[in-house]
Amino acid sequence: MANTTIERSTEGDIQHSDLLDAYRLMLLIRRLEESVYKAFHEAKIGGYLHRYDGMEALVAGIIPQLNFPGDYVLSTYRDHAHALAVGTPAREIMAELMGRATGCAAGKGGSMHLTDPERGFLGGDGIVGGPVPISLGVGYALKYRKQGGVCVCYFGDGAMNQGGVHESLNMVGLYKVPVLYVLENNKYAMGTSVERSTSQPDFVLKAKAHGIDGELVDGMDVLKVREAASRALKHIRETGEAYFLEITCYRYVGHGIGDDNTKAWKTYRDENEVDEWRQRDPIANLYRYLEENNLITREQSDKMDEEIKAEVAEAVRFADESPEPPLDSLYENVYS
Amino acid sequence: MATMRYQQAIRLAMTEEMERDPNVYILGEEVGQYQGTYRVTEGMLQKFGPERVVDTPISEIGIAGMATGSAMVGLRPVAEFMTWSFALEAMDQLVNHAAKITYMSGGRIQCPVVFRGPAGVGTQLSAQHSQSMESWYAHTPGFKVVMPAFPDDAKGLLKTAIRENNPVIFMEHAGLYGVQGDVPDDTEFLVPFGQAKIRREGTHCTLVAYSRGVHICLKAAEALAKEGIECEVVDLRTLVPLDTETILTSVRKTHHAVVMHEEWKNVGFGAELSARIHEGAFDDLDAPVERVGGADVPMPYAKNLERAAIPTDADVIAAVKKTLA
Ligand SMILES: Cc1ncc(C[n+]2csc(CCOP(=O)(O)OP(=O)(O)O)c2C)c(N)n1
Ligand SMILES: [Mg+2]
């Protein structure tokens, strides 16, 4: 990420500046997500709205290791973080959330359909399991063109129970295409826990049943995510074969705005559980590591946070001031 | 008689039928412990237990197959799709299995299953979640297709659906769940399929609609009445079977007709309605039938574009004036 005010560590120590970038990205995701409910309650945002708070490491530990153009990302409707990570400016995301002409999908898509193909982001998908069959095709095209490139496909624990997911994983294993699967195991699909929905909850085993190798990763620790993803990406780039990361994490807020409004989430989890996971916060974890290694001070972190909050506020202002899409765009883009 | 919301009327219908017939069970995503995504099934798990209120994974093919298969051997499942948009995942089980098994078996197998859930457009849910697709099902022989507009009909039609020996597509409207109305407490209150209802009488133009379209047409009719134009509003209640006679009788009186729905206009149900009116009452028409439907685009997210894509009472008024001009 650009414009962090913290001094880059010295030459050869690239990893340290990467970690500062990851820290900044995670903070940006958190602050942007924290701002969206307010905009919803002010009726600036409509539709469904799904936040990524608590899951930031899954994006910050992986997407910055990709190369654009060349690599691709697919995600679910919980997609604000993925767009930020590929480099879509916060203002274009906020403008899309507010349905403005300046949004990254011209106001046509909204929160669930952020898109930035020039930066490799093929979009969020509102249908559970939907990105997985698409990833097979993207992976096949990468293999077909023989120019390298990896597709990273994010999907949820609940999505693993979709028929199309298994058809596609079998074909991925069969045709050997370069896709990195990131199963965002946040324990719940809406109000249904993995235990209540899944007869075999070992997701890595399921990938292996389709001929795709994989491993389980702790998603509350971005260092572990980075390390596993780095190995996985190397493996995919070298062999051309897919790899599967089941990454454990937790969503701090309700499934979507509806689930939070009504506190319906109390039907499936209690506040203690949420608090316990918040104790393992990925951003706080990384901060501790950076501080222990003299890579950041509290002051520097606070300053970064202020900059990020200003960036988010500016994004909201930009969206507020942007025009709605022109009415005659209604019939545009049905066909290209 | 009790006053209740559309959503409560649906719950009441399921509850009464489950109390009456042990073969009835419900299944779907978040119908139990979570108390229903739209609270339609609230309290039912507590009342009937997990064997009769089955929480499923996000597996629409599995849901449709489980419902269809268990209906083929005598149960009467009521499967909820969280929204009808997600039923697209299950299209093969629905169209190629549930709808056809009776015919393919030469009538030897019955399939008494109800598929229900919210349909309809609006609230900026955008392209994948905001769409109405009743014509897909009405087009398929073997389904009965039900789309209630009011709470009493929601109860009476759903009870009929559960007792029906054929697969029923029961499409609710998320935008109507909060609508209040008087609902008979009678546990034998059944609304028969294939009987449209005149919601407002008029002499100048017939408006044909269903689901939320009925409310939109009633609003238009009220506004038009102030200008001296009296519309007759026909609420179809079921698309299959279709009560063509009630529509034609009205058109023979008014000599003008506007058909209206929220689904896409192109090849939408209005095309069928228009054709039936032209076939059955051509000589009685003073002008061609007007169609009002959704814009033929995937639903856009932005508020202003969405507003332009969804048909309103203003569109109905304009269509009435055009046909009367
Ligand atoms: C095919 C389909 N069925 C149902 C839904 C409704 N729905 C949206 S998100 C969701 C839960 C998905 O859970 P999971 O895959 O674990 O992802 P998470 O939301 O936890 O990130 C459900 C049931 C949908 N969008 N698509
Ligand atoms: Mg989940």
Which structural traits does this protein have?
heterodimer, A: about 325 residues, alpha/beta, Rossmann fold, 5-stranded parallel β-sheet, two-stranded antiparallel ribbon, 13 helices, about 10% strand, globular, disordered N terminus, B: about 325 residues, 2 domains, 7-stranded mixed β-sheet, 5-stranded mixed β-sheet, 12 helices, binds thiamine diphosphate, binds magnesium ion
Ions and ligands: thiamine diphosphate, magnesium ion
By oligomeric state, this entry counts as: heterodimer
Q: Any idea what the radius of gyration of chain A is?
A: 19 Å
Structural class of chain A: alpha/beta
Return the average pLDDT of chain B rounded to an integer. 98
Greatest interface: A-B, 41 and 35 residues
Number of strands of chain B: 14
CATH class label of chain A: Alpha Beta
**CATH-scheme architecture of the largest domain in chain B:** 3-Layer(aba) Sandwich
Query: Strand portion of chain B, in percent?
Result: 15-25%
Strand order of the largest sheet of chain B: 3-2-4-5-7-6-12
Residue ranges of chain B: pLDDT <50 for 5 or more in a row?
A: none
The biggest beta sheet of chain A is recorded as: 5 strands, parallel
Structural shape of chain B? globular
Structural domain count of chain B? 2
The name of the CATH topology of chain A is Rossmann fold
CATH architecture of chain A: 3-Layer(aba) Sandwich
Q: Could you estimate the helical fraction of the residues of chain B in percent?
A: 25-40%
The separation of the N and C termini of chain B measures 43 Å
What is the CA–CA distance across the termini of chain A? 33 Å
Annotation, overall tally of beta strands of chain A: 7
